[in-house]
Amino acid sequence: MEVNPSFPAKTVPEFIAYAKAHPGEISFASAGNGSVAHVTGELFKMMTGVNMLHVPYRGAPPALTDLIGGQVHVMFDNMPSSIEHIRAGRLRPLAVTATTRLEALPAVPPLGDFVPGFETSAWAGIGAPKNTPAEIIDTLNREINAVLADPTIRTRIAELGGEMLALSPSEYTRRIAEETDKWAKVIKFSGAKAE
């Protein structure tokens, strides 16, 4: 969760209070309808009761440009596209949306410290066709997790503000089901429709 440095709120509680005092006047940028930044902003609205206007862009770069320029007020962006703007002081982070502090921004608290239960992160995984033999799935999982354990890879991902999750196939399947259920509720709350 990041704002332009000129935005009056310096903390998440201040942001919530400001947004509630100015209902409908706060805009949040995203990389587009249905993006992680969009649904994270909708989750924030749902869990805090603030009224913010969603402004979708065609990708993170133009959204960040307008956030830095002050045309929009807040963004729940993915760390790799924002981290250098934060380090350069062009953006002020209020919180990370992970459940714990990130190695790349150790002074920035998790949003869940202020909005209990709040957690979201962009994540990626590798899938295989439905009827892929179990031994192939197990081999792929073992080899991919070995790469994720490589210190060079882990360091680079951490520098970008990311974290590694080396999951088993069953853990990954469970995560997909949990995330599908969570985000279906947020999308219903937002009123978003497939186009």
Task: Please characterize this protein's 3D structure.
- There is one protein chain.
- Strands 3-2-4-1-5 form a 5-stranded mixed beta sheet, sandwiched between helices.
- The radius of gyration is 18 Å and the shape is globular.
- The protein has 7 helices and 5 strands; from the N terminus they run E-H-E-H-E-H-E-H-E-H-H-H.
- 26% of the residues are buried.
- Helices cover 45% and strands 8% of the residues.
- With 195 residues, it is of the alpha/beta class.
Keyphrases for this structure?
globular; 7 helices; 8% strand; 195 residues
Number of strands: 5
Q: Supply the helix-strand structural class.
A: alpha/beta
The helix count comes to 7
Kindly provide the radius of gyration, computed on alpha-carbon positions and rounded to a whole number of angstroms: 18 Å
Oligomeric state, counting identical vs distinct chains:
single chain
Question: What order do the helices and strands follow?
Answer: EHEHEHEHEHHH
Share in β-strands:
5-15%
The major sheet is characterized as:
5 strands, mixed
Give the mean pLDDT.
Answer: 93
Termini separation comes to: 27 Å
Order of strands in the sheet with most strands: 3-2-4-1-5
Shape: globular
Summarize the structure in short.
This protein has seven helices and five strands; from the N terminus they run βαβαβαβαβααα.
Chain-wise SSE layout:
Blueprint: E1 2-3, H1 12-21, E2 26-30, H2 36-48, E3 52-56, H3 60-69, E4 74-75, H4 79-87, E5 92-93, H5 134-148, H6 151-159, H7 169-190
Parallel strand pairs: 2-3, 2-4
Antiparallel strand pairs: 1-4, 1-5
